[in-house]
Design brief:
6 helices, 170 residues, mainly alpha, Four Helix Bundle (Hemerythrin (Met), subunit A)
C-alpha cells in the first residue's frame, strides 16, 4: 500500500481526535469535572477548552485546503470556554468531516499550490505542506489537553493516548 496524504493526515488526525474524545469522557467522570474546561497547564497558556477548539478548527482548516472548500472563519485568539457537550460536538463534527473526505480527490490535488490562511495572511501552500504544519499543531493541542487533564488529577496513562492509534484500522 502506498502511504498517501489520506493515511498521513486524515487517518492520523482521526486517531488523534479519537484520543481527545476518549480522554474528555474520562475527565467528565471526575469529581472536579466542572473545573476542567477552564484548567490550564500554566497561567499564561490557553485552557483545556481552547485545546479542543484549536485541534478541531485546525483539522477543518486542513480539510478545507485539501478539499478545495471555504476555510472556517473563527477567531483563534480567544480562549473559548465550552461545555462538555459543546466540546464533544466539535470533536464529532471534525471526525465526521474526516470521514467524509474523498481520498481520491485529496490524493489527486494534494500538491496543488493555492493561497491558504496562516496567521493573519494568506500564503501559497500545497495541501501536503499545509497539512504538515497543522498536523503538528493538532498533535500539540491534543497532547496539551492530555497534560492538562493529568495535571488536574484525571487518571490517564500512556495507553489512553496511544490506544486509538492502534485500534482504528482502516
Amino acid at each position: 500500500m502506498v502511504y498517501t496524504i489520506y493515511e498521513g493526515f486524515v487517518l492520523q488526525t482521526k486517531r488523534s481526535l479519537t484520543t481527545l474524545s476518549d480522554i474528555l469522557h474520562k475527565a467528565q467522570e471526575q469529581p472536579n469535572a466542572s473545573d476542567l474546561p477552564s484548567a490550564r497547564l500554566y497561567a499564561d497558556m490557553k485552557s483545556l477548552s481552547y485545546q479542543i477548539f484549536a485541534s478541531t478548527t485546525q483539522t477543518l482548516m486542513v480539510l478545507a485546503k485539501l478539499n478545495s472548500t471555504p476555510f472556517p472563519n473563527e477567531d483563534s485568539s480567544k480562549d473559548y470556554l465550552y461545555t462538555y457537550e459543546e466540546m464533544h460536538t466539535r470533536i464529532d463534527e471534525a471526525l465526521k468531516a474526516l470521514d467524509a473526505t474523498d481520498k481520491d480527490y485529496i490524493v489527486e490535488h494534494c500538491e496543488d499550490v493555492t493561497p491558504a490562511p496562516l496567521g493573519p495572511d494568506l500564503q501559497p501552500f500545497s495541501g501536503v505542506a499545509y497539512a504538515g504544519i497543522f498536523q503538528a499543531n493538532i498533535f500539540f493541542h491534543v497532547t496539551t489537553a492530555y497534560g492538562i487533564l493529568r495535571k488536574e488529577g484525571v487518571p490517564l496513562g500512556k495507553k489512553d493516548y496511544i490506544l486509538p492509534f492502534v485500534m482504528i484500522q482502516e
